[in-house]
Amino acid sequence: MRVIEPRQFSDMKTKKKSPLARTLAIIAVCSSLGIGYIAYTNLVSNKFQHKTEIQSQSNDKSKEETETLQGQLKILTGEEFKNLYSSFAYPNTQMLHEKPKITGNNEADERIREIAEARGYKLSSVPVANIAKTGEPALSDDDLIQPNALIAWRELKAAAEGDGVMLQMTSAYRSVEAQRALFVRRMKSEGVYPESVAAGFVDDLVVNLLTRVAPPGYSRHHTGYTIDLACDGIGLDAFKTTSCYSWLSKNNYENTKKYGWVPSYPDGVSLQGPEPEPWEFIWVSTYSLYE
After folding, report:
1. Domain ranges, ordered by start, for the chain
2. Cα distance between residue 255 and residue 279, in whole Å
3. Which of 43, 202, 241, 269 could be disulfide-bonded to 196 (CB atoms 3.0-4.6 Å)?
4. What are the pLDDT tens digits along the chain (291 aa)?
5. What fold characterizes domain 76-288?
6. Is the Cβ–Cβ distance between 69 and 182 less than 8 Å?
């Protein structure tokens, strides 16, 4: 057996590095790690910046596409307004299938309807589910409106107030029964009686009445999407002389169309029922009013 001397054993051990060599090695490792970290962070930063730029471009493109899809507001004639609100499918409503009674005198009621329809009056639709309270201080029995129209009314009102225009709602939903009471009251106040109507003696008086008030079943207020407006207490025909009407109607009703509203009985339209009513507006959604 070979005997290894202690000196020989010592020579076979791995030689230890000097302190200086060890320090230099640590510095080299740290430098490599530092360079690698800096390169990594730069890479991540560049990727994040690139991603942000792409996202920003995507958002800009999405906004641009939305604006393109929205398009411009339609410019409509009186007849085109009429065609629009006549063909619009009003949510949460159904058409009346039977013509409501007016005076209770069948002959008189049929004569009133005949004259009304010859003037362009059409049977309306009515809500099929609950509608909302408007909360408007000027309203009492007719303090109801369709939810979509309520949102649009509040937006329109806020926009008007922002321009210093103080709109007031004076009427909204009106039931068939409420319209009947209104119509019969107007008949009596103008000396139009069912017996004379039935006999055909007062057709001119009936025509005159129908230029200003719809018979029950034929009012757009039945839908819950129609409102009457006033300006500082000024309504009806005088409303057209107010700053409110000027704001609403300028540039082909630009301010109303932005929120889905159009004139219910505009100027320049034949056979639409009553004469033009500058105070009445009807909601048809913004989707119907952009190109």
Report:
1. 76-288
2. 15
3. 202
4. 334 444 443 444 444 445 555 555 555 544 554 545 444 445 444 544 444 443 444 344 333 333 434 589 999 999 999 999 999 999 999 999 899 999 999 999 999 999 999 999 999 999 999 999 999 988 887 899 999 999 999 999 999 999 999 999 999 999 999 999 999 999 999 999 999 999 999 999 999 999 999 999 999 999 999 999 999 999 999 999 999 999 999 999 999 999 999 999 999 898 999 999 999 999 999 999 998
5. Muramoyl-pentapeptide Carboxypeptidase; domain 2 (3.30.1380)
6. no
